[in-house]
Design a protein that fits this description.
Elements: H1 3-15, E1 29-33, E2 36-40, H2 47-54, E3 66-73, E4 77-79, E5 82-84, E6 87-94, E7 104-109, E8 129-135, E9 139-156, E10 159-176
Antiparallel strand pairs: 1-2, 2-3, 3-6, 4-5, 4-10, 6-7, 7-8, 9-10
């Protein structure tokens, strides 16, 4: 190899695009307090997708439920007066629709052991019985979470808090023990 060829090969190596390291797969995260656990996927913040779910509309994201987490409890809980027996549940967001009634949260008793799929950010909502469903409104917060974070905190005054952070949005719901 001549000196000129060696310089050309070296320059090509310097300007050639470097392969990015592979991204880590989106894996199920778990938060446990006492007899309750919540499992979710740390889905990257999608401000446009979430805005479409919050706003009244007829888009793909307004027509589809989002089973974003699984709740498993070995002891009964309550949620704003509703009894949540020990069991396995899907936590499901219902988007705002053309009727502009806002988003809602559903706690759905499910028979499947797991419906979350690592790497799949919009898994199919499992069939089951609704044990609680109510309108929700996310708070807008200053700090932006880069990915969905669902965790349990407490207990405080006999209650566990379910804290959902997604981008600049936060939702807190309290479960009675």
């Amino acid at each position: 190899m001549t000196a000129t060829s060696a310089v050309v090969v070296s320059l090509v190596a310097l300007v050639a695009p470097q392969a990015e390291p592979p991204k880590a797969p989106i894996a199920i995260q778990t938060s446990t307090i006492g007899a309750a656990s919540v499992m979710s996927l740390p889905i990257p913040w999608g401000p446009n997708t979430f805005a479409a779910m919050e706003s009244a509309g007829d888009s793909f994201y307004n027509k589809r439920t989002w089973a974003f987490a699984r709740l498993e409890t070995t002891a009964p809980l309550t949620l704003y007066g509703a009894s949540i027996p020990a069991g396995n549940y899907a936590l499901v967001f219902h988007p705002n629709t053309t009727e502009n009634k806002g988003m809602s949260l559903e706690v759905r008793k499910i028979a499947v052991a797991e419906f979350l799929e690592p790497g799949n950010v919009m898994t199919r909502t499992p069939e089951g019985e609704t044990v609680w469903k109510a309108p929700i409104r996310f708070q807008t917060v200053a700090e932006v979470a880069p990915a969905l974070k669902v965790e349990l905190t407490g207990p405080v005054n006999g209650k566990l808090s379910l804290v959902v952070r997604y981008g600049d949005r936060m939702l807190v719901k309290e479960f009675g023990l």
